[in-house]
Design brief:
alpha/beta, Aspartate Aminotransferase, domain 2, 7-stranded mixed beta sheet, 5-stranded mixed beta sheet, 41% helix, globular, binds pyridoxal-5'-phosphate
């Protein structure tokens, strides 16, 4: 952003015109906020007026593949590049199709939370995580003591790699792992004045760990630092951490948010404002963190979302709530079957009463806009679970190799059921010791239950387990 405050009359005219566009956008946001979750997911900010006046009546958000925007004259160019008017300029910075995705996500994640949010969409979940954490990991002054952040160890394997190798090994930033994220006392012992943020994942992939989001957010705020949380496996249809004080939410849009399996993407959504003691020249840093990231580090580092993927994502997200309802119910049924199977010695699914984290998850994971008949929302726990096969690791491999309907793939969050063995795939690179600490034995099969009839999934699992 430019530091000059004097604008030419030509630029000023464009700024004046922009006020109307900002006001229309604001009115649209206010109007959409009155609607229910499903309505927001279906329409986002794309209105009838917008379709008729700007987009030839197209009922679906148009796909803008052009890499850059053209301007009427030099004044508009200057105003646009100075972020003084609504403009998308260049797809590495912004794009009209991605814009619709970002607004839909901001509205869904902040739905009935009582807070406003902004969002930046990225090329992948991992780039969303990197974009969220990096701005807090800058040295504030020369000779500063070593900075650190505190993270649950029960996180996605790629996030673990990003933290332990890219941050700790390469940049010397200390990562303090919390082994039992449900235990607030452990978080407390790890924080000091050089801690920049707290990081958690709930429910976690693949162990189904969970944490008390509100308590951890309160703890973070006592230290004047933000809580960053990955709720990829829950999606805003089942949990919206902003409601409990979380500052920043990250998602892999590649997973349950889309479930279609055609697009890779990520998103970071931040509350306005976030809690942080990190100093930054831009007021947006605190006031609208996702916008700050979009304007500056995102532009400079280049993790931009592809507009094609943004459109796939938008289209898949329209049925998010009903899809998460169906998939969660299927997963519940499959997990109950497995929990009674003689060849299975442990099933981890937050929806099972036997899970020691069931009570905690029950407080947080609820199908948005549902009603159990008594005015309470219905609990739903998503479609990721894991189970452990009796005997040596070869047994788990045998069961895995005998699956005939369920795909063997490292993916998750799909409309098709998928399984993997984390110890030899997603969590292989973190090594044996870290896997032991994160409780990922080689007997564990991670299963993501899809939209097939659950009886057919059960039948496939049963025949595979019978191969032992
Ligand atoms: C897959 C995943 C990620 C990373 O997302 P990509 O889109 O694959 O980069 C982050 N967090 C969780 C919980 C995931 O499952």
């Amino acid at each position: 952003m430019s530091d000059k405050q004097v604008f030419s009359p030509g630029v000023k005219k464009y700024m004046e015109d922009a006020k109307k566009i900002y006001a229309q956008r604001e009115a649209r946001v206010v109007r959409m906020k009155k609607f229910k979750f499903d309505t927001i997911a279906v329409h986002g900010l794309y209105s009838i007026e917008e379709a008729l006046n700007k987009n030839q009546g197209a009922t679906i958000e148009p796909l803008y593949l052009a890499t850059s925007q053209a301007y009427h004259d030099s004044d508009e160019l200057e105003a646009a590049l100075d972020y003084l008017i609504p403009a998308w300029t260049y797809t590495r910075y912004a794009n009209p199709t991605t814009y619709y995705l970002e607004w839909t996500l901001a509205l869904l994640e902040s739905y009935r939370t009582g807070v406003d949010a902004s969002c930046v969409a990225t090329a992948s979940g991992i780039s969303a995580i990197a974009s969220a954490v990096d701005p807090f990991l800058v040295k504030q002054k020369k000779g500063e003591e070593q900075i650190n952040f505190v993270s649950s160890i029960q996180i996605y394997g790629g996030s673990f790699q990003n933290f332990s190798v890219r941050k700790m090994q390469e940049r010397g930033i200390e990562v303090r792992w919390v082994l039992h994220p449900e235990d607030i006392e452990e978080w407390k012992t790890k924080i000091d004045e050089n801690t920049r943020f707290l990081y958690a994942e709930a429910p976690s992939n693949p162990q189904q760990s969970f944490c008390d989001v509100k308590t951890i957010a309160d703890l973070a705020h006592m230290w004047e630092i933000p809580l960053i949380i990955d709720t990829t496996c829950a999606t805003p249809a089942l949990m919206r951490p902003l409601a409990y004080g979380a500052d920043i939410v990250v998602h892999s849009l590649t997973k349950s948010m889309t479930s279609g399996g055609l697009a890779i993407g990520g998103a970071m959504i931040s509350r306005k404002p976030i809690t942080t003691k990190v100093k930054n020249d831009s007021p947006l840093f605190k006031e609208s963190f996702a916008e700050y990231v979009k304007h500056l580090p995102y532009r400079d580092n280049g993790p931009a979302a592809s507009p094609v993927n943004a459109l796939f994502t938008l289209n898949d997200m329209r049925t998010l709530r009903s899809k998460m309802d169906l998939l969660s119910q299927n997963c519940q049924k499959v997990s109950e079957f497995l929990s009674h199977h003689p060849r299975v010695y442990q099933v981890d699914y937050l929806g099972l009463q036997s899970s020691c984290l069931h009570k905690l998850a029950k407080k947080y994971m609820k199908l948005v806009d549902s009603d159990d008949g008594n005015g309470n929302e219905i609990n739903r726990y998503g479609h990721l679970m894991s189970f452990r096969v009796d005997g040596p690791p070869e047994n788990a491999r045998k069961v895995f190799d005998n699956l005939k309907l369920i795909f063997r793939a490292t993916d998750l969050g799909r409309i098709k059921s998928l399984a993997t063995i984390p110890a030899i795939s997603t969590h292989k690179q973190q090594g044996k010791e870290a896997r032991r600490m994160a409780d990922i034995p080689p007997q564990m099969i991670r299963l993501c239950v899809g939209g097939e009839n659950p009886d057919d999934i059960i039948e496939d699992l049963d025949q595979a387990l019978r191969s032992l």
